[in-house]
Design goal:
219 residues
């Protein structure tokens, strides 16, 4: 089956098989959050992006294979409701940006800044700090090269149709819009696949023509 990224709470995960990395997307919880399980083909090690809710379903998705790391994209509670339970079962290290780490329900084992690298097995993921939705919101970029392409996990900072919520705060919107343009759109190709914290996936090529509209409307 071809990966689409269209998942529903209570439904099965959608799985994308890349040469070096497997991506499983699962919708969980009352806020229709997306959780992403990444697994390195070479080592079998896994990394979970946002233990958002439904710990039983997340643990079932792991299927008793090692998950060494859990990355929380930002501090909002709908993105970490299952973090304590999943961490307890897996023993995984918890990673977040230092500006959002204090709000999490468990101690953070490692804090990361813009430009840092997080490993999933033998695969490096680049940390991109996107300020505005929260002070410490981060995205993770996998550059698979060649046919595998670029894969960007954006939390709540970039969605189909716009950047994340900045609650009508002009300063926060300007910061987030600027970061998204300079740190994502200005450096990554149109084919980059975007995996957001809620809802359907998109690509940078689909969203790029609307950037002037986003700036003009201020959200």
């Amino acid at each position: 089956m071809t990966y689409t990224g269209d998942v529903q709470v209570g439904g099965p995960a959608d799985v994308r098989e890349l040469p070096a990395l497997t991506i499983c997307k699962l919708a969980v919880g009352p806020y229709d959050n997306n959780a992403y399980l990444l697994r390195c083909t070479e080592t079998g090690e896994g990394l979970l992006i946002d233990a958002a809710a439904d710990s039983d379903r997340l643990l079932a998705l792991m299927a008793d294979q090692p998950v060494r790391t859990i990355v929380t994209t930002h501090q909002h509670g709908d993105h970490w409701q299952a973090l304590e339970q999943v961490t307890k079962v897996t023993g995984a290290q918890v990673i977040a940006h230092p500006l959002d780490a204090p709000a999490l329900p468990v101690p953070v084992d490692r804090t990361v800044e813009h430009g840092d690298t997080v490993m999933v097995g033998a695969i490096p993921l680049e940390v991109i700090h996107l300020r505005g939705h929260t002070p410490g919101s981060i995205a993770l970029l996998y550059d698979g090269g060649g046919e595998a392409g670029h894969h960007l996990f954006t939390g709540d900072s970039l969605f189909p149709g716009g950047v994340g919520n900045t609650w009508d705060d002009a300063e926060r919107f300007t910061q987030l819009y600027t970061d998204v343009v300079e740190r994502i759109f200005d450096r990554l190709p149109d084919e980059t696949w975007v995996y957001p914290g809620h809802g359907k996936d998109t690509t940078l090529g689909v969203e790029r023509p609307a950037l002037p509209e986003w700036k003009a409307r201020g959200w």
